[in-house]
Amino acid sequence: MITIAVALSIILLLVILYLLFRIQVLASIFKGSYRRDVGKSNKVNAILLLAFFIVMGGLFVWSFVAAKEDMILPLASAHGDELDSMFWLTMAVIGIVFVITHILLFVYSYKYQHQDGKRAYYYPHNNKIEIIWTVIPAVVMALLVFSGWKTWAKITSPAPAESVMVEVMGKQFNWMVRYPGNDNKLGLVKHTLINANNEFGIDYSDQNAQDDFMADPTAFRVPKGKPVLLKIRSRDVIHSVFLPHFRVKMDAVPGMPTTFWFIPTKTTAEMQTETGNPNFQYELACTEVCGRGHFAMKMIMVVEEPEDYDAWIAEQSKKTFVSQQAAPAAGEEQAVATNGAGSTEPAQ
Amino acid sequence: MSSTDISLHNDVHSGHDEHHDDHHDQSFIEKYIFSQDHKVIAKQFLFAGIFWAIIGGTLSSLFRMQLGFPEATFTFLEPLLGKWVEGGKLDPNFYLALVTMHGTIMVFFVLTAGLSGTFSNFLIPLQLGARDMASGFMNMLSFWFFFIASIIMFYSLFLETGPAAGGWTVYPPLSALPQAIPGSGAGMTLWLVSMAIFIVSQLLGGVNYITTVINLRTRGMSMAKMPLTIWAFFLTAVLGLLAFPVLFSAALLLIFDRSFGTSFFLSDIYVAGEALTHTGGSPILFQHLFWFLGHPEVYIVILPTFGIVSEVISTCARKPIFGYRAMIGSMLGIALLSFVVWAHHMFVSGMNPFLGSVFMFLTLIIAVPSAVKVFNWIATIWRGNINFTPAMLYSIAFVSLFISGGVTGIILGNSALDIQLHDTYFVVAHFHLVMGSAAFFGMFAGVYHWFPKMFGRMMDEKLGYVHFWITFICAYLIFMPMHYMGIAGFPRRYYTWTGFDTFSTFLDMNSFITIAAIVVFVGQFIFLFNFFYSIFRGRRATENPWKSNTLEWTTPVNPGHGNWPGPLPVVYRWPYDYSKPGAQEDFIPQNVPFSQTASSNLPHERDFE
Questions:
Q1: Where in the numbering of this chain does the Cytochrome oxidase subunit II copper A binding domain appear (chain A) (predicted)?
Q2: What are phi and psi of A119, to 5 degrees?
Q3: Domain of residue A240, CATH code
Q4: pLDDT (tens digit, 9 = 90+) per residue, B393-419?
């Protein structure tokens, strides 16, 4: 019943709109306005363009200011500082261009609307002006490129030797984190070794794998103030590690391990105080579409004071993969045998 | 052949004309379906483009409803979408299929085929003074290949496992593994087949456009006297011809990986409880191949509208386009550079950071010719005498959207800044403004402007204004706030953000965007009504309703087969002699010799008198 009522009212509305349209057409024929090249609506549109610029410009400024607090994520990494200031500097540069060009575009549109008896100014080109407005953007771009290069080179430089190494592995649809243990070396992995008891596909015959251990399924920890090297890989499709508060992003690519290193500058506890949110957590999100659960690939990264972190590590290193998996080790070897046909070079 | 006949017997009495008509009587099928007339093919592309735009727009409204109202249940969609909205909740796989197909349809089927197909076909022969395309038959094939590609892509929407769902960029391994997402099953197979056929269609069209521009210009129409539209279509066709084959190879290799067990893009994969035997492939290779097309592709989308907008602005401002040669130069520069910037889509893909530095440099250079174009458009408006036709309003709005979307490209092209913004809503906002909305606005400008020549009638101006203002306001209301979400890090292609505390802000803003998106979608029906109503009942057009200079306006109201009933027009001057001092009218068409305009000739033009 309601559907029919809705449908009827829509049809009625359309009929009314159509009638309005016809009346408008007939009125313009009656007035003869359709015979003029440039009618009254020209002036109306010129005013509307100017009004659009003022109203929408005002809305833009207002909404930008209002959203600014939500927009800017609190920052917790060393390189992020440089990125943020470069971002806002570039925003200022493009903001100036945006404002000037829009003022000219809309004000000229209004000012030079059609006037009877007037003729436009025949002005096909002016080499001097054209050279000037080619060179200025070129110089500005060059400056931006140079500052970008410097920062990019710094961020992508090799990680310091003393970095804390953490392996982040993406899979449909969660993240798993492995620590290298006391030797600070991650054991070899093979995708053919993966099974329900060995999600990472660790090759237990590798000496380096003996002291590797895993983080909680939902959270992993890193120390504050030390370089952290993320060894990123994927075991199925492409994922992407995104730590928004740390301005960190790097794809996790199957068959091609990637890395990203950064220095956390604030512990989770410090950030909880700073944001006034006692439940604040650093979240790791996936930013490369990876399937049904893409939107839910979340993991928490806890940043701790180095002492707390060391204590946690000492505790965790007892729970190595080897010790955890001692019992199902026999099943392990069987899996290796069955999947061995497609074995590949170690991914690491 | 027929065209020569027309020109020879033009002045013969009507009895002969009848004979002539009998001789060339075309069946309905020959005339309207398997037509080789460029004007009919252009309209076929236009209608197909409009059809696809409606589909693409509908898909976006669906996923915008999910994003704007993640808690709502859409039970009213169940009769239409069945199991994809079980219990009124959109299925996350369906959501991904929606965004994937929205992207594919809009980029390739609407803004490539619909845009170039319509305006290159319609305007190249008409503005060059040619009877038709170099090869009418290839031109016809181009449309029908596109039609087959369309049918296959459309059919894939109705598959039980759904259409392709790995994003319009179809990165493997996701797109290669049906175990990873249902859309990578039959849906992806059809996507690849459809795209392969689509590429054939584009190449057939492109070869034709290029050949026509090079060979079929009328007497006097040197390259330096061509309207900017033709330059734009010409360069677009060159880009397509060089870039699409690379996508073809990528698609082919992906088909091999999917169906024949090769490992071009796959390596070390364990999925759905099984270790695959693929080894040694590189997913990054696919990204390089894809974006080698993908980046020129965004210029394939935007270049034709550069031409259309330049033409419309000059005509409606009654002023020569400022810096004609600089406009051509900047288009050449953009076309050239568009081939060496592709890897800026891959700064955080894991490729060598050194490559990132090179591509940042090349990417930011492209801002220079783009800026020159914008300045030239503004300078053209300056001291003009502007007639705000709907086409002109769309062109001015195009410049605005192109600036707004373009400037953020300077941020995204910076590899360091891209780390935070890559694959966030900042990117979505950027490209929807600069190539999505802007290209659509250019297309609307073209339709409103050339409608009289296409159908011999005028579109209703008032409806055009209403349509314009709804579309322009909503375009900004939708995409401006997306920048804010992007700066806050909201990732793309998320079914919902509510699982993350970091991304739980901006709920109201998302609802707001959705409402604006639905308003603008409904607003397009004003255009549709205006378009179809005017084809049949619009006011009859005159030959040259906008008092324009280019050659298409010298044809009859309804140009027949062969375009000009008499001999082909001869060109004497550039196409932008508007408001020339001393001239009687404020426009001098290209086919008016200097000898007839002694009062307005400039010193260097006296020699041609």
A1: 161-315
A2: -125, 140
A3: 2.60.40.420
A4: 999 999 999 999 999 999 999 999 999
